Amino acid sequence: MTKVSMTVNGKAVSGEAEGRTLLVEFLREGQGLTGTHVGCDTSQCGACTVHVNGEAVKSCTMFAADAEGAEVTTIEGMANADGSLGTIQQAFQDYHGLQCGFCTPGMVMIAADLLKNNPNPTEHEIRDYLEGNICRCTGYHNIVKAIQAAAGQSVPAVAAE
């Protein structure tokens, strides 16, 4: 076992981890941050996406020990300081960018990475950026609209269901 320390969502954390412990396991089981989902264990789905030192990373492909000293942001860290939904989270809610919700944490995290790098993406750029994240429910249309809204773009309102 190795002691692993990092800053997660602005808070210093540490814990014991075996060398083979994945970052997603360290976050979920060691820190109780269960918003980061384990979907496929093969880095295909993107449900486990977090930010490590400001970059989107699939946490099922990174060992916890490799995040030693890093700044990690999970979906829990995307909320506003008062606990209310952050801009991207609110847009996903407003534009029905989720259904079952399993992919949502990873989608929000990859959307934040996209908007950090490209604050005014086109629909094509959004769809291209989402390529490594799988959603089995929505068909991506409302996810794209939610990201456009989070970017401050004019998006038609979603009809009430």
What does this structure look like?
Helix content is 30%, strand content 16%. The chain has helices spanning 23-31, 87-94, 104-117, 123-129, 141-150; strands at residues 2-8, 11-17, 49-52, 55-58, 71-73. Helix 2 (87-94) crosses helix 5 (141-150). The model has no long low-confidence stretch (mean pLDDT 95). It contains five helices and five strands; from the N terminus they run E-E-H-E-E-E-H-H-H-H. The longest helix has 14 residues, at 104-117. The chain is elongated and about 50 Å long. It is α+β, with helices and mostly antiparallel strands and 161 residues long. 42% of the residues are buried. A five-stranded mixed beta sheet has the order 2-1-5-3-4, sandwiched between helices. The chain has two domains: 2-78, Beta-grasp domain (Ubiquitin-like (UB roll)), CATH 3.10.20.30; 87-150, DNA polymerase, domain 1 (Orthogonal Bundle), CATH 1.10.150.120. Its EC number is 1.2.5.3. One of its GO terms (molecular function) is 2 iron, 2 sulfur cluster binding. This is Carbon monoxide dehydrogenase small chain. Residues 2-78 form the 2Fe-2S ferredoxin-type domain. It is an enzyme of class 1 (oxidoreductase).
